[in-house]
Amino acid sequence: MDKIEIFCIVEGEDTLFSVKASRDESISTLKELIQPKRPAMKDVYASDLTLWHVSIPSTPKRIIKRRDLTDAEKANKEPENIEDPSITISEVFGTSLPKRTIHLIVDPTQAPVLTRTPSPPPAELETEAFHMRLGKIKQDFFQPGNTISDFLRMFVEGELSLPEADCCVKGLPKAWLRSSSFAQKSPRPALYLLHPTRPHQTTSTTTPPSVAALETISNFQNNDLITFFGVSGCGKTRAVVEMLAQTWGFYLNGSQPIENGLNIQAITGCLLLARLLVLEYCLSLNRCDAFTRDRWMLLQVCPGAFEPTIPDVFDSIFRALLDVYHGHIPAISFPNLKRLLQTQFHLVQRLLSSYASDSPPSKFLVVLDEAQTLSDHGKGYFMSHAESGDLRSILSPIIHGLRSISSNTQNYCVVTCGTGIGADELEVLLSSGGIGNSWEQVNR
Questions:
Q1: Residue 301 three-state SS
Q2: Cβ neighbours for 237, distance < 8 A, ≥ 6 positions apart
Q3: Residues in Cβ contact with 159 at an 8 Å cutoff, skipping those fewer than 6 apart
Q4: Which percentage of the chain shows pLDDT scores above 70?
């Protein structure tokens, strides 16, 4: 892949450095390449770096500050703040860069706080206690002898399997998406879980929906949202099950929304963090022969089907995280919770990279099934990030919360599906996700 060399300097320093990146990569990825280059940035998250696009002739050992730039240097290129992390490098720099030139000034400092506003504690102090409580949760749930730890170990090692349905055809799986109570009495098989690694194909000429969706996600790397439409029973859940059987990701179900409107994005962050902690533990057991993508999918789609005494490992850890979040003093801000979430996600990404080194990396899927339920919940109570400023349902902040898993849209894709999603819900999804608000782009 063709790469360009971008010369940078940290605000207030005199040492020039360069990074090489593909023109198609995002500004978010560029920040991650820049962050480890200089000591001044070692304690700063890559997403917090401020980049200024400039065009300054490079001279040896000259301290560069934006306020000290000469008129001639500003005439070449007025310093421009690159604010959108999702745009590509080529959109900023074009196809070529001038030689012997500084292209970026990097400012690692955060924006000043107004003097009349009490300064919040530094991020590292604010989150230190939360980190300790997080470590305590991991120790409590994943230490040997804990019921959840023992259950996960048995599951990862392949000792647990789905129960079989009590019907005329033997060997069909019996499972349930959300409730273990009715499933115990129902003899009906869960056909949507039958051979999930074999994509369902209605005719020889049509591409299975799961295959088409995965191809779309792969082809449009900067898009981080895709939606399944369709009437009840058309196979939407089967499609996302097939996708998760082939690609690492999370399965969430919108039919059980959290009844709390104080900070929906933060609550969604805790929901993702719980799954990341469970996945980290499962991967740490190093049983790639038994713990596969489809096994991980089954644990999420029907968590209570394997052991009646452990209805939902994810919910137990999520509730513990939520208690810590709401009871944390001083209160942890959502930006800092998001940093913790993204740090944990990067850790899991590294584990997956070494865990499945035989297969190429792909976007991590975050599936939200039954999204139409959330679109009807809390309508008119949540502020939209769209230009219209319209009030939205709870679906809007939840989508924003799901997208907070990474600052780089090329690392993940949110997949929503639900019966009866119409134009109103589509507008919410478009304005909540990272894709352009146009029908043409959706149709692609």
A1: helix
A2: 177, 192, 369, 417
A3: none
A4: 69
- In the DSSP assignment, the letter for residue 338 is H
CA gap 382, 289 in Å, rounded:
45
Query: Residue 242, class by beta-carbon neighbours within 10 Å (0-12 exposed, 13-18 middle, 19+ buried)?
Result: buried
Strand 50-57 and strand 101-107: the pairing is: antiparallel
Cβ atoms of 196 and 245 closer than 8 Å: yes
pLDDT 10s digits, 112-165:
333 334 444 455 555 677 777 888 888 889 988 889 999 999 999 988 776 555
Residue 156's Cβ-side half-sphere holds a number of Cα atoms within 13 Å equal to 17
Residues near 290 by beta carbon (within 8 Å), at least 6 away in sequence: 156, 157, 158
Q: Which helix (H) or strand (E) holds 320?
A: helix 313-327
Q: Domains, the chain, ranges and CATH?
A: 3-107 (3.10.20.90), 123-160+195-443 (no CATH)
Q: What is the pLDDT of residues 269-311, one digit of tens each?
A: 999 999 999 999 999 998 988 898 988 988 888 777 777 788 6
Dump the DSSP string for 379-424.
TT-EE--STT--EE-THHHHHHHHHTT-S-GGGEEEEEE-TT--HH
Dist. CA 365–CA 245, nearest whole Å: 11
Strand partners, 107: 50
Q: What does DSSP say about strands 364-369 and 249-253: parallel, antiparallel, or unpaired?
A: parallel
Q: Are 93 and 6 in contact (CB under 8 A)?
A: yes
Whether the pLDDT of residue 205 is over 60: the answer is no
